[in-house]
Design goal:
heterotrimer; A mainly alpha (294); B alpha/beta (611); C alpha/beta (241); A: ABC transporter involved in vitamin B12 uptake, BtuC; 73% helix; C: 241 residues; alpha/beta; 4-stranded antiparallel sheet; 10 strands
Chain lengths: 294, 611, 241
Amino acid sequence: MSILDHLPQFIVSGLTTGSIYALIALGFCIIHNATGIVNFTQVDFVSLGGLMMYTLLLSLGLPLILAFVLAVVAVTVVGGLVERLAIRPARSRAVIILIFITIGVSILMRGIFKILWGKNQMGVPHFSSETPITFFGATILPQNLWIFLITFIAVVALQFFFSRSRIGKAMRATSFNPRAAALMGVNVNRMILFSFALSGALGAVAGIIIVPITTLSYEIGVMLGLKGFAAAVLGGYGNSLGAVIGGLLLGVLESVGAGVISSTYKDVIAFSILLLVLFIKPSGILGYGDTERL
Amino acid sequence: MWKRFPKYRSTVALFVLAAGIVGFPKLIPNPYYLNVANIIGLNTIIVVGLNLLVGYAGQVSLGHAAFYGIGAYISAILTVTYGVPSWPALIVAASVTGLIALIIGIPTLKLRGHYLVMATLGFNLIANIIIVQCDTVTGGPSGFPGVPALSLGGWTFDTDEKMYYLIWLFAFLAILLALNLAGSRVGRGLKALHGNESAASCVGVPTKTYKVKIFVLSAVFASVAGSLYAHYLSFVSPKTFDIFFSVELVTMVIVGGMGSIWGCLFGAAFLTSLPNVLHSFDEYKDIFYGLILVVILLFVPEGLIVGVAQRWRASRTARPKDQPGLETDQAGPRDLAPPQEKVNIVGSFASQVQIAPCEPILRIQNVFRGFGGVMAVSEVSFDILRGAITAMIGPNGAGKTTIINLICGVYRPSHGTILFQNRSIERLQPYQIARLGLARTFQNLQIFDNMTVLENVMVGLHAKTNNEFLVSMLHLPAFKREETQIRQRAMDALAFFNLENHADIPAYQLSFGQQKRLEMARALAPNPQLILLDEPVAGLNMTESLEIAELILKMRSQGISVLLVEHDINVVMRISDKVVVLNYGIKIAEGSPHEVQTNEDVLSAYLGGAV
Amino acid sequence: MLRIESLCAYYRGNQALKGVSLEVQQGEVVSLIGSNGAGKTTLLNCISGLHTDRTGEIWFREKDVSRAQPHDLVMLGLVQVPENRQLFGPMTVEENLQMGAYLRSGKMTGVMLRKEVDRLLERFPALRSRRKQRAGTLSGGEQQMVAIGRGLMSDPRLLMLDEPSLGLAPMIVQEIFSIIKQLQREGCTILLVEQNALGALSLSDRAYLLETGRLTMSGQSSTLIADKRIRRAYLGHDLET
């Protein structure tokens, strides 16, 4: 009975972290579709978003909206730089080499963050008031609503970008068939650069909106990012809609599971779901974004 | 000198290693360095195992820190909490770890792609959290103290120096076993499946089983290292076994060089001592670490040892072939001189009984195969005659290669049966079909680039040989006997195709024409009953084509049945006993070359109709 | 318009093209025929800038484009319709066609782009009802039409068609060839690569025969069509020779 009483609360907090996982999972998918690799720097895009927000908002005292936009732009640029400096020179290499390059860059980035921001924990204020609202027995912070709203906007904007805009369509075309896209005059290198930049932006947004309700540190993105990765696998690696559904589902399952079993095993629940999906249905809920050929 | 005695090279190196191990504590009696050396030894054991997985089977695990940790914790808990003697505890730990690896490996390794990375990553995170959270059993975040020192027959390994010899004995054995395995039939099979899984399967390598076995083996190596670690430090902490250590272990493999067992030693030594060297720069450790990984992967992805050795060799010996492809034309005719005085490999194992060429060796009966709604092959039936050359022709996209893939098990028919020597084979895996005596070549050359010319042919004998993991690792007498036979037979096959002088160079350095012959040598070496040749002369010039045609006739004369798919109609009409013509996945004609050549349907299928 | 001089191309040590020189004049339909493995697709990929392991010169509209990137060539109006259609399967027919106009669409409004697609679909009535359907679900013939349409959307100066009849039933091949004929009447310059020799010869002005990386014959299509050697290149020499 007590579980049922708490269910609305679990669902609200599950959807909150689930939104973050969804944004991160989308970043993983976009790069996977463009290059076929798992980009582990996605994790650090999240951290960097939060860290930049802290610096711009608190150290430089910029207004909230300006800090938000500048933080996203900064990580977008970093995403592009990662592609340009570390991925493009090695793109003819085996996928596994590329994956390890992203792991190397991830370690490097974390090392830099540690020096620039230190190992201390930091806090970023909520976007608006911190007075909770009670709704069907669940306590909701205004920041939760901000997270839902911004995630929703980001997902819709992304959907619009990929289905309507010229560049978005070219990026999709490139992911389906890079050779044919090149024959249409698409600069394939640039599309891959864009996909890293876009993933950077998504990671940054995820980091920025979550830091007010968690403690910020130079490695905040690691756990969030790895769970975002699990969410992407759950939804069907490479499938954008799957990423969103996988993210939200993982968030809720984790939150409810932690409530039912024990919150100490919250992380175990998320990664057990990852293993279960890989063992039972490796193509995830919605299947691959692209079919695997023999 | 090394070139002339390659056999002794690794023996000498092993002696040097043994001498170095024994001499180190005498030369550097500093306890601090001894401690570092011990950790290097433990890491070497894990990395050697991991390199068999990464460098040979081409699969990456981000869970080896967890296997290391599970080994350490099981040893610790069994000896302290349950009073189990330490050596049985080590064996129990290794068995449990192996079992866990089996459970993770079976579902993920049967898939193509890098699912193992994802699964092991998740597994490592889970294992770490469980170790931290189950504090009543594991001691939780503060660790598990009081693990007793190892002892053997009254001798206790209770000092750093004693432990040093034990750890390095294990490390030495790990290197020895890995070298043995790498140079064996199994090692070649693993390399082949790394190079090209589908082709490896077609030469008889049970790819899925091998991947799982090598993954379990590498997990066991890690577990043993973990047990030694627990007894050495007498204390285990969950921090040691987190996901970052898994990444570090793979980094050691990459720094040393994937597929290089000696590189493991370097990778482990380099990356283990690095934090100690960088002690005063603790802040910058991660930056430096990340940079090393990225720079090596960008500029020497073969690893430092292998990459530097390759570059050094390349700078010393000007490569004879810097202009790819050109030598095909120049050297072709000379290279392809009829191999009269050579050993006659074709059929030297062939059955003595001559069978009338009317009996079918393979029957395709009413076979259908669709791909995503499109019927690539529909209702095709024909026989391949024993001891004869059956040709299959048809325009591009007619379904010829699909039929070859159906016969050798790469695809399964949607409907219909395929009988090989009266046995239904359409449900078998490619490696099982290869064992029945069926070999093939590929339309687009499928040479294993990561292996030498000789190894390519030796792996071709996989289906006909039996040495498995244990025999190979321990170099039992059975191993040597069979290995000698494999080598001899492979050299004979190379000699037959005039490639014996290139035996030890990497296969990718051969010219196109030579690679084509290498692929035929690989297919022919196990002396198959039936050989499927998918466009053997495509891309060759007239002289080379005629040489290949001669070879195919020779195969027939030795009793090997041939299914020939070829676009070069000259060759087909010249040598075939029977021709089957396909168009749009349907058989449109079947008969003697002459009958087919004058068939109107065939003419229009080939030349198309005027508009 | 297009001039190629002593082009050699390599694939992993295999020399796929051995000194090919050919040219295509404005307004011509030139066919390049030869059996599988002769190097026809490699030649087109060299011209399109997709295959870079090569030597020799390529001139297009009086410019040396030997080192040009694929998108530069499309910008100049050199457009390839690749072998096996290579559509963007999960995208709709309309999106595929829009991708054809990718480089031009930067300066177009959505309405203009839609009008372009409308205009193109007049040429392919069979596709009109398929506009919102995923391209991967079309039949082979329809897919080939989308592929040609996608190429036309780039507003090509020279259209290179790689095996447009590949894998299509004879009826559909006729239909595709009649589309090419229509383009020819409108004055399109076309380089047609075909295995279907008689079909290609019957609609082109001039032709080249490619055999194992070398051009072995060239001339007026009407002369080549009667030449016994073409038949032999496909169906074999007399057994005695």
